[in-house]
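[09:14] KT: can someone run the structure on this one? pasting the chain below
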Amino acid sequence: MNYTKVIFLKVLFIFLCCFHCNAQHSIQLPNIDIVGFDDDGSFYFYQQTGTDSYKFIELYFEEDDEGFYQKVIDTEDDDLYTLQNIKDDHYETIFIDEIHPSTYDMWLQSDWYLSMEDSEGNQENTLRFKENGTVTYEEIEFIDQIHMSIPDKNAPASQLTDAYLLYTLIIDFGNGKQMVVLIDDIDAIFVAIPLFDRVKIFFEEASILGVLPTPKNTTHTDYLDLFEELSVDFIYKIKKDSREQYHVYDYFKKDLLQTSFDTIIHNDYYIVGKKDDEFSIYTILLQKIEIPDVKKVYLNNEELEILTSQGPAYYNHLGKISDSKFIKTIIPKIDVYNYEITHDLNRRYHHGVFITHEGMASKSTESKEFIFSDIKNKYQLSFLNNDTTSDYNKNVSK
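[09:31] RB: done, structure tokens below
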């Protein structure tokens, strides 16, 4: 049968808005009986219509005229499937009755240690849930002191090698039964479900061998790399209302700050709203910085400069007071993209494209690979120039 994958369009940063556990973005699906999972973490919903008879329920999002997303629940598929059909077509099936009632608070009580296996071998990584609705996925490398030429007894037992910021979407089946979907820019990366006998987590890139709750913050994370991957223009929509007042919305048109401003300015780390003569200053995670008696605000690359009656003050990208003043330099604009077609026989979908973006100096170089899940593995790919690489330079006039 031909399933349509749940489409999240670009709702990655929609869920950054949530300040408290009870404010997670939630979609109600009360009549679902089975969730089917593929080995890449894709999931599909089924509703029972009779004895050994189920219909497929599709969830996706459509963009309206203003660029906001509206959810669509499609129940028009007339095909019916037996339980055996569903089990045959999916890597794993979970009945809603198997899900333990829970709230988002449960995920906040611990960090979640994941033992997993992919093409590179076994890994031990961590998911950390935050109260503001964000989640960090952290790749951990354990340091082998035994085989070091000069062991360092003060060195940490592990170190962070990479980290990614994800966002939560809760699928609520009713009666407290939920599954948590962790999203990046276009896809559901993790799906976490508390069952009565265990916690089940699916990952699109690897098989998870075990899930273990561990005490929070046992490893240190430097979030600079995470913040460098964010952009206000991509995370939020800043729009004027009919009264010419500015708001910060998510992609579902939720007013994230619950207030309006005469004007809004921002860089990649701060959002500043001005109403009459008063300034309101927020980090990119919408955490308000309380600074009394602000007279002027300047945004400089990664940092914030403010002037009060007590004099100037400087804040770094994390919203913390910085000791050093800005080095104000003129940086030439760089905006170059490199595209390279990839082909990997070790993954489910062989074809992809690796994109490298050389941006402003504060952003440095960003790279990401996108997998083509809708192109058959037997095909060969190239760009129109019959090559597997292509460059685009925005600085070159057309």
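[09:33] KT: thanks! The mean pLDDT is 76.
[09:34] RB: yep, looked fine to me
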